[in-house]
Amino acid sequence: MDDVASQFLTANEPFLRLGVALLLGALIGIERGWVAREQKSGERIAGIRTHALVGLLGGIAALLSETVSDWAFPLIFVAVAAISLVAWWAKLAEQHDYSITGLVGLLLTFCFGAVAVSIDLALAAAGAVITAVILDNKHEIHSLLNKLQAHELDAGLKLLLITVVMLPLLPNRGLGPGEVLNPYEIWWMVVMIATISFVGYFAVRLGGAEKGILFTGLFAGLSSSTALTLHFARMSRKSQDIEAILAAGILLACGTMFPRILIYAAVISPGLLPQLLLPVTVMGIMLYLPALYLWRHHRQALRVDSSTPIQNPLELRTALLFGALLAVIMLLGEWLREWLGTAGIYLLSATSGIADVDAITLSLTRMSLERIDPSTAVLAIIIAASVNNLMKAGLAAGLGTRPLGLQVAMPMVLSMMAGLGTVLAM
């Protein structure tokens, strides 16, 4: 039975592919026809019938190019484009609508029909569905563009620059002392942390103050928990009636550092994840639980319309400095490992954790693949995270009110003790 079905499909494959080309054209045509449903018959340049036929024509053009002449497809494509331009020009004289989106969609429909017949059905279907979605969400896309700020667009383009342009150009091999510096891998880690910061910024930008301090604290941890700690600590001196809620936001932001650590490990060194999962989870829970407790018992306090504590989602200078910091840490790690052994790694983790936990975490996960024992890497990461959180607790106590400092510092200390105790007990 299966052989018969297989033979049937093989024998009728051209007909089936042409049928798919017709259906993909109809799909785009349905969206175009729905948009122009108020217009009378004959006033639309292309609706469901035209798009369906253009998709079928694209498939036939591809078949003719394979069996008759290589010129068949380009000549028919030019003919379709010319007819479409004439119709668009005639419509322009009456409606003064300069948009060529519909014209581009029609030409894409022709190409999707050709792809379905000659290249790949799944690729053609995916392209047609994406095209229909883009065409259908005109107002949503324009609304999003209107809300986008200049520095956010600049940041997005810079993220593409360091990802699509710079990353493929870097050599993927070890350089420097002990060949510990791999430019491609270092920059790839820069891209990863920049992407997480970018996503975190827009999570706060879209949800932000409307969702309250709890939501802001949770997602600001993806971008800059230190910036949020400074912001909320200063705010506590002006709004002492919501100190507990501000403390909850700080704890949530600092706790979000631990899921980030697990993401780094899962992507860079999956073998490190089983040893890292328990202590990191324990430390995160020790911050999340007090934060939720504070929120639950003080949620009646007035929500504060605070500005987002992150100024720019991505700065190219910051990314370059982060890459340099990674390289320095990896060199220092190799030098301290040779000079002091395991103690040198722990010393490096403690000192690096004062300023930033991402760079040392990325460096240690990378080093655990070849140069240091996984258990050493796990303990060093926990040390760096503990020092970093204690530093932020000090900022909260020094810049904020006394109650805020106590509500932040106590869970931080307990989290550190729980994490170190879990690692040592393993």
UniProtKB/TrEMBL annotation:
Tagged with keyword Transmembrane: yes
Transmembrane feature ranges: 15-34, 46-65, 71-90, 102-135, 155-174, 186-206, 212-233, 245-267, 273-295, 316-333, 345-365, 377-398, 404-425
Domain DUF4010 residues, every copy: 191-400
Domain MgtC/SapB/SrpB/YhiD N-terminal intervals: 18-143
Keywords: Membrane, Transmembrane, Transmembrane helix
Domain of life (superkingdom): Bacteria
InterPro entries linked: DUF4010, MgtC_SapB_SrpB_YhiD_N
UniProt cross-references to Pfam families, sorted A to Z: DUF4010, MgtC
Name by which UniProt lists this protein: MgtC family protein
Species assigned in the record: Halomonas lysinitropha
Organism lineage string: Bacteria, Pseudomonadati, Pseudomonadota, Gammaproteobacteria, Oceanospirillales
